[in-house]
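2024-03-11 09:14:02 DEBUG pipeline.ingest accepted 1 chain
2024-03-11 09:14:02 DEBUG pipeline.ingest length=209
2024-03-11 09:14:03 DEBUG pipeline.predict start
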Amino acid sequence: MAKPDPKDSKDKEAAPAADKADASVGAGAADKKSALKTWLPAIVAVVLAPAVSFAVAQFVLLPRLKQEIALKPPAAASGGAEHEAPPGEEPAGAGHGGKEGGKEGAGGAGNYEFSNVVVNLSGTMGTRYLKTSFIVTPADKKGNLKGLFEEHKAKLTDITLNVLSSLSLADLEEPGAKNVLREKLVATYNQTLGKRVVDQVYFSDFVVQ
């Protein structure tokens, strides 16, 4: 009787092991393909998101924004009665005379306007100053206040500077400081001209710096 060949036995034992290894490799490859399919949409989204965002901003949002800006009317400049002067304002100590005013609603064409009057404030050693513009209205609406002020322009400008430069920073910080100054200017003008020709003073600019 022939004895079984040991090599045949070893080959038979190795065959199932090889099949198992092949099956394991195939299962691993299938798992990798499945995982790749699962993560592929997420990877594509991450890669394409910046490009899509840039395209939307460049071709959709920016044109709309430019169109809205072009159609939007310019905002009206707001003028405050009291505000801080911007940097580079006119240096302290320079006094400017007035000019005729023609603003409606405060006396009409008979008004006289002092524009951009600048004085040092008292007690500040030239470090603080007041810049103001105001309109003077006539007591007699039919009178020629404008002509009268032009005739005495040098004198009225001088007394205006004297009144304003006598003010201190503490004076201007008092409640109702502008009303007190308004009454003082009216009284000074009428006293200088020898009769009641001025009715009221209206400030259009009042800056303490």
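2024-03-11 09:14:41 DEBUG pipeline.report The beta strands are 82-83, 98-100, 112-120, 129-138, 198-208.
2024-03-11 09:14:41 DEBUG pipeline.predict end
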